[in-house]
Design goal:
Domain AMP-dependent synthetase/ligase: 3-393
CATH topology of the domain at 23-178: Rossmann fold
Oligomer: single chain
Shape: globular
Domain AMP-binding enzyme C-terminal: 448-523
CATH superfamily of the domain at 23-178: ANL, N-terminal domain
Organism: Actinotalea lenta
Strand content: 25-35%
Pfam family, one: AMP-binding_C
Radius of gyration: 24 Å
Region (Disordered): 356-379
CATH class of the domain at 23-178: Alpha Beta
Strand order of the largest sheet: 6-5-3-4-7-8-19
Number of strands: 27
């Protein structure tokens, strides 16, 4: 896909990183030189190459360079602790790691627990425009703060990527390309069981999902400017910002992290047309643009994922842009997008939408996945299509637990409870593992949370099940109070619940927290909330 973008749109800007631009022709040269440098260090087809990097132009280059060699990219969250990195690095068997300077010490600390032969430091400041790079050395407070946010001391003996690649020879064009069914990526995920494991994604998986996305959006190649604020190490950001951008020969406007000021600066400099994100990003960006009087009217489409999209968020965004904001659904195991709401007036806010092109969906009895359930009845969502992964890295039993053969087709058990509505639209009810069983009744936390968020005194909420004696589990609501609210009583919450929830779904306990733990892309981590509440007794 990248080769085709380079061939057809060589002069088009491929990446804009805080104002530093790279055309597709220049990106191809950078990728070839980086691939040559990796090959010179002994990276071969099938080797795992770990990327421990924030979003940056170099991240884009290294992603494509490793894939060009036929190596397997292993993406890691650069803010992870040494322990978390050690598990993933050891499990993947990565032999080379390209690491942000601020994360190098953590990787070096656990190197002996891994198969790593090379740990290489990456200086993100090298990607900045020359003027901004020079400004980092000014003796002023802002320059020191910016430098500290991007750079760090590198332990002795750790080589630097910018020096290595400067002297590298470009990979010859005749070097063999990987095959479609070769593994391209190991993307670590909790999957459907919560145990971190590497989802194997092939070149076919990634290419198919990018093609499906283009068919869905109808975007012409060489016409789009995409915001690259989702973390590239997450499956959502990886597909929408890396593989989809290459497929559509888009300009990718890269920011190292989601920051409304950085995004609005980018919008003024290079107006966006397509924004993938999560609901809090759309909420904050619309509010910040209104305050700063920045026009978002160039943004025709937004796609929201990872968590439920509130109707109010969609309405606010669509008023601010004049475009559409629709919800998508997927998992790391589906590369990741499997369903979406139409990018048209037929969209149905609050639903996951309908299957992507060439994608099949079934709603089945969770206890017997061969038995479909009728429309309107809750069941587990099964997905089949060219974007569905072949399994987990070195975990055949866990792979067999989620991949089932039915009627001659391989289906992924998503672990999500959905309801099929008229028109084939699917509505998410909850995760099977999150369902609370209390007094013999099933309570779906998402439904309770959605209702409690409408209570004026509550800014945010996570509903979990805790041990409840004879009841099995009791429903507990962990809430964040709305601004200006000093307290809220359990009785008031239960009274509010009476409006829409069955009595057995009413919270039996209430815990006030200053905030809720979230993943890197903003999803509330119910598992962590539950562990925190158990620890508190």
């Amino acid at each position: 896909m990248l080769d085709e973008a380079v061939r057809d749109f060589p002069a088009r800007i491929a990446t804009d990183f805080l104002g530093a631009v790279t055309t597709y022709d220049a990106l191809a040269r950078r990728v070839a030189r980086a691939a040559g440098a990796l090959a010179a260090m002994g990276v071969r087809r099938g080797d795992r190459v770990a990327l421990v990097l924030p979003n940056s132009a170099t991240h884009v280059v290294l992603f494509h360079a490793a894939l060009r060699l036929g190596a397997i990219v292993v993406e890691h969250n650069p803010t992870y602790s040494a322990t978390e990195l050690a598990h993933q690095l050891a499990d993947s068997g990565a032999t080379l790691a390209l690491v942000w300077e601020k994360a190098v010490a953590r990787v070096v600390q656990v190197r002996d627990q891994t198969a790593l032969r090379h740990v290489i430091a990456v200086n993100l400041a090298a990607d900045l425009p020359a003027v901004k790079r020079a400004a980092l050395h000014l003796p002023v407070r802002q320059a020191r703060q910016t430098r500290a946010s991007m750079r760090d001391r590198v332990p002795a003996g750790v080589p630097r990527w910018d020096r290595i690649v400067r002297h590298a020879t470009a990979l010859p064009s005749e070097h063999p390309h990987p095959e479609l069914d070769d593994t391209a990526l190991l993307q670590y995920t909790g999957g459907t069981t919560g145990t971190p494991k590497g989802a194997v994604l092939t070149h076919r998986n990634l290419a198919a999902n990018a093609a499906q996305g283009q068919a869905w959006t109808g975007h012409e190649r060489g016409s789009q400017t995409i915001l690259g604020a989702l973390p590239f190490f997450h499956a959502f950001g990886m597909t929408l910002c890396l593989s989809y951008a290459a497929r559509t020969a888009a300009t990718l406007v890269v920011v190292p992290r989601f920051d409304t000021e950085l995004v609005l600066d980018a919008q003024r400099r290079r107006p966006l047309t397509f924004v993938p994100g999560v609901p809090p990003m759309f909420e904050r960006l619309a509010a910040a643009a209104a305050d700063a009087r920045v026009d978002l009217g160039s943004i025709r489409y937004g796609i929201s994922g990872a968590m439920s999209l509130p109707a109010q968020t969609a309405q606010t965004w669509e008023r601010a842009t004049g475009g559409l904001l629709i919800e998508g659904y997927g998992m790391t195991e589906t590369s990741p997008v499997a369903l979406g709401s139409p990018l048209s007036p037929d969209r149905r806010p609050g639903t996951l939408g309908v299957p992507f092109p060439s994608t099949y969906a079934r709603v089945v009895d969770p206890d017997d996945p061969t038995r479909p359930v009728p429309p309107g009845e809750r069941g587990e969502l099964l997905v089949s299509g060219p974007q569905v992964f072949p399994g987990y890295w070195n975990r055949p039993e866990e792979s067999a637990a989620v991949l089932v053969e039915i009627d001659g087709r391989t289906w992924l058990r998503t672990g999500d409870v959905v309801v099929r509505e008229d028109g084939g639209f699917l509505r998410l009810v909850d995760r099977i593992k999150d369902v609370i069983i209390t007094g013999g009744y099933n309570v779906y936390p998402s439904q309770v949370e959605d209702h409690l968020r409408t209570m004026p005194e509550i800014a945010d909420v996570a509903v979990v099940g805790l041990p409840g004696g004879d009841l099995g589990e009791r429903v507990v609501a962990a809430i964040v109070l709305a601004e200006g609210t000093s307290r809220v009583e359990l009785a008031a919450v239960r009274a509010w619940s009476d409006r829409a929830l069955a009595r057995y779904a009413h919270p039996r306990d209430l815990v006030v927290l200053p905030d809720l733990p979230r993943s890197q892309i903003g999803k509330v981590l119910r598992r962590v909330v539950r562990e925190q509440l158990i620890d508190r007794g």
